[in-house]
# Entry
Amino acid sequence: MPGLLSHRALSSVLGLLGLVAAFVLTTAVPARAGESVFIEVTPNSVQAGSRVNLRAGCDANNNRQAQVTSDAFGRVTLRSNNGFLTGSVTVPANKAPGDYPVNLDCANGNTASTMLTVLNMSQPSKGPATGGGGTAGGRGAGSLLLVGGLAAVAVVAGVSARRKPGGRV
# Structure
């Protein structure tokens, strides 16, 4: 007796999971100006009022401080940390949404830049906490919805694969 999922349905689900994984892995790509001169902002899209982490490289000059400037958050000094230059800063809560250049100025004169996208979405108010339901809006609700959606796609694909043309199941 064949299983619930056909080979085609299983391939579709695995392909979808592969696309999701590829999207997640490519969201924090450093902008590079030279072989080892770069600036990274993680996350590179952030809600106004949230904190971002900065990581940079200034060629062979990572033992000296560097400056990062952006209209999104002002000026930040990066300090040496395990072979990189690192720091963090909070984007002001009243920052207008948009794309902001983030510029690195190294002590040796090298420069690099990348972009930071600031979002300013209104946060909906939560309903009353009425129980321990997994979809009550706490952390992990998005993951639960993603897994549930993938399961629904798998079930529909499996049922569709078992249907015979012109007949009833």
In short: The first strand starts at residue 31 and ends at 32.
